[in-house]
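G., before I forget:
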Amino acid sequence: MLSELKKISNYLRIKILKTIFRVKKGHIGGSFSCLDMIICIYFSKIFKLTKNHFNNNSNDFFILSKGHNAIALYSVLDYLKISKNYELNNFHKPGSLLMEHPSPNKKLPGIEIETGSLGNGLGIATGFAFANKDNGKKVIVLVGDGELYEGSNWEAMILAANYKLYNLLLIVDRNFAMTLDRTEDVMKLENLQKKIKSFGFETSIIDGHNYLTILKKFKKFKKKKKGPPMCIIAKTKKGKGSSVMESDLKFHHGVPNQTEYENILKDLG
Amino acid sequence: MKDIDIRDAFFEEIYKYLKKDKKIILLAVDQGALAINKIKKNFPKNYLNIGIFEQTAINFAAGLAQQGYKPYVYLIAPFTLRALEQIKISLCSMKSKVTIVASGPGFTYASDGPTHYFNEDYQVLKNFPNLNFFCTSDYLSAIKSFRHSYKSKNPSYIRLEKGISCKISGNLKLPINHIFKGKKIVVISNGQLTIVIKKILEKNKKLKNLGLVDITQFIPLDFGKIEKIIKDYNVIVLIDESPLRSSINQELYFQIKNKNKFLRKKIIFINTHFKFWKIAGNRNYLKIKNNIDETSIKKKLLSLI
């Protein structure tokens, strides 16, 4: 299974790169940092997130709070053929539903809420989790580490811990970078684990690109029937998979030029 | 129906509806009212004091609404401003069926200072598509606002008055209530001011021919109904407890003057000043300072006769 996930990951990275290069727009760096986790969420079959689950409303919920990386989510939903509307040919195409930031629509099963303004996904996810506490449906919300500067996240953490939302999993895409700078250089977030733990979350740090570790944590979360909400701080790299992007902050939303594009493609094999 | 406090009437109505609909959930942002105790006691699963955070209250409510609940977020009106982005996106853009119950509009909390005034709600919230805006003026309008918000598929904002224990007329009509039919001059008002004006018109024989209209729903605004009423009047007096630029009066003026047939109608505004009041005093004191108290309004109306 792990090698299969790796193959899918590589395939989708190339597809995202080609799309962003074609439309000359997109947040490629963060999309590559969170992609492995989104792949694990959907492909591991741990969670109820298949087309059938969406069709009969028995699905769990995944909320991408860092909405600027929607292309990563679209690519996964497209691969799984959740809806033909997810074809990346539609990304930024005038009149299509695939905007840079996601917005819910009946034609886009899997997009639960509208994100793009940072700091709101977790709060809304607490509402989802509270509403589904009795039926055990799981709610996973992925936030960026830079997003955690928004105070609304910490408000929502107080609420989630207070109501013991055992069915809520908060994933922090800890790529240590914002648009312009590295978080620890300009506005320190560390010690992040200690902070989130002190808010009442069961918290751990993992390698956000290691499928084995990610899946282990997901299985643990899936089994939870009570207790506090869970948080995974997933250490990741912006632009993961290409040496061209991993070392360059401009790829937060910078589009590769022709040479960079060719080199990234070589890196991705 | 026996006269009761406007807030108690509102929460009594929620209580009644809770008996048949357990999807209603009251989220208090650390704000109370007498009738809420009954909800707390008899429907403990449908009441939460979720603490002092407006942004998360709205986001949490949006999440609940997306999952089939009907949340009512009860807060002190001016602190609605704290959660504007959440109202715009999580409620209006996502069409989450959440109702904000904003207690204490205008100068209600005058003695608490400018942090607690809220004269801007209409001006700010009218910019967000899909939002209903109700304006209560007595306990019947509070009850009807609740019923309308309950039926609506969209998010709603209810401007809930405080300290009113009467009804304006026996047969309240949302969204426009033509309380007195008059001749030549009509006063269009809302909220607590409508009660003040009604009293003025009832007490003064010289003013007995003035018409009075109470607007209880600002958004969507049923201008068609207003149009039918004002066609028979020559002078329209628009009164609101906010500065002109922030009030419904600006919108009414625009709509009236947009009709060629109404171009010759005279419009008179009675609004508050556009400033922060950094002085102690209760709601009535600030109304006096703004010339929208009973005496000032009476004087103004008499000058029109």
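The mean pLDDT of chain A is 96. The first helix of chain A runs from residue 2 to 23.

More on Monday.
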